[in-house]
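forwarding from the other thread:

> can someone predict this with DGJ?

sure thing
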Amino acid sequence: MAIHILKDNIFVLETKNTHYVLGVDKYGYNRHIHWGKKCNINDYEAKDIWDENSNHTRLDMAKQEFTVFGGTMYRESDLKVQFPDKCREIDLEFVGAEAEENLLTFTLKDKHYPLQIALKYKIQDNDDIITRWAEITNTGDEDITVDRMFSAELTLPSTNPYTFKNTNGSWGGEYVETESTLEGGALVFDSKRGTSGHNQSPYFIAYQNADENQGDVYFGTLAYSGNFKVLCTRDLFYTTRVSLGLNDHDFRYILKANETFVTPVVYCGYSMNGFGEMSRQMNRFAINNVLPKQFNDKLLPVLYNSWEATEFDVNCKHQTALAKLASKMGVELFVMDDGWFGARNHDRAGLGDWFVNKKKFPKGIDELINNVNKLGMDFGLWFEPEMVNPDSDLFRAHPEWAYHYDTREAHTLRHQLVLNMTREDVQEYIFNRMDEMLTNHNIKYIKWDMNRPLSETGAENLDCPQELWHRHNQAVYSIVDKLKEKHPDVAIESCSSGGGRSDLGAMLHFDQVWTSDNTDSIDRMTMQKWFTYLKPTKAMRAWVTDINWYNSPMSLDFRFNVAMQGSLGVGGNLTKYSKEDLEIGKKNVTLYKEIRHLVQFGDLYRILDAKKDEILFNLYVSEDKNEAVAFLTSAHTGFMKKEIPLKFMGLDDEKVYTFNLNGRDWKKSGAYLKNVGIPTTVRGMGYNKIIKIKAV
Ligand code: DGJ
């Protein structure tokens, strides 16, 4: 890893396998020069641009690191402002660049107005991920109005069209993969809901002729949980660019005198070995550099969550009964979900009243917490802090705290309104209620839920109401950070009707995320694959429940097999389980504890695909390649039978591995397992196996 500052203002970021090169050209434009395989660094230059003609301008042709609105530039821009004298153009000059260890700062300023832009690039040893963001400063003494402010622009090297992977998910159907080839014009992936949402994802994955194991893949993901925009374009010169940042939909920001706006970061990278290598790089990067430090290197506990078993009908007796059964299975953390507070007997009342419901818990919540603790488990609690039901004491006392316009109907969704999180009194109320619960009760885990998008976003407290989208998101992050600072032993999960806030921005603050309200094991086989494209496996909570959408009940072993490919949880109604089922649960939880270090921290090799190959074959390998665990899972195979040589990837060719499969103890080299494989018959409904592999 190194940052090279060359003559003629050329800067080379050298990562493990790549060069990312930028600079300044003879016209003074900031220029993107190269992103990809390493070359001789002395060869790099900011090449001249063709002569312009009356329709094709130099600025239009330039590949830039950050494009601003103004002059003879007719493509999309990353920054658009209005200065106090109503001028809406930016004209930049290069100020200088400096490298401090692993951080390059490349500074530009407007030639006339007090506007400065610092482009930031951070690299680290051992991977090809670059963290990019921009810092926009008003160095003058009058306000500057900002109408668009993206974090980074990335130019892809090939003049041929790229295919972009993104998602077209929904509640209960998150992460559904899409592919679109961009030949000309634009592709936009965004959210306008106030959260990153279930639908499109704040990332791009661009490739040509790549698959899971080979080919060039460029990718980048915005670490942000609010309204985002990923804008991919291919122009008349066949240049493909991607800009990522805050959505400019209903956006405006007043940059005050001497204020610096720091954009959310983009993590971007290049894999020469397909999507698998991309995911492994991002997985390791996210564990080491994104997830909060308290728990990033700790094994996540096996949890039980009461939602699917009890919904709102919670009380000490029934929760204790569930806790007893969960602890017998080996569960380490018991989480009581919705229903414990206010008049929360259904989803029509109580949100906002974060006081323990005395009818349900006449002796207080500590009775249950003590029971759980005596069983040897930690206790966790659900909140939905950003919301209020009109039927709640909070709303009756402060109707003005919900987003609204006096002249418009504030629409409820799931009978609830969104609190105006940009108000300090609202932030204080939420922090104080949660802090009080954490201070006075032995709570070690919070599930922070968010079950509807924003609407009727009147925020009369703000001078510039369009700032509310960003300010709302930042308020959530800041309350989470404050709670963690005061209660460093408490882990916090991000949930938004399932995976509606499961982006890497959330993972800079929350320790893990709820993946989806769809806990059907067959659906999860594919959802979990798409989740792990750019997000860490460790953060992906996966529960074993009693849900069965397909009317073909999968065995408990099968359901455990799928959930054990993430951070395991249990969520079924254990009081209805037979003795035998409870034993199966215990056996699997015990096994999970033996292999979870591989699942949560290992390198994932997706060898066979649940849809394409009818069999899911995932291998998680330890960093030193001395240990691995393989999951073989098939909902059903065509003709009820499939003969395959199981070929393993990611192992060390030279090492010899032992494991038991098909009733036999095997001892074979990594090379043999990769090239020859183990003959296996996968047969019937719900075939599943977990194979523990060790190097001798
Ligand atoms: C939506 C979440 O995704 C569920 O897990 C559960 O917590 C419910 N909300 C509770 O209302």
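The pocket of DGJ is lined by residues 307, 337-338, 382, 449, 451, 495, 497-498, 514, 517 (CB under 6 Å). thats all i got for now
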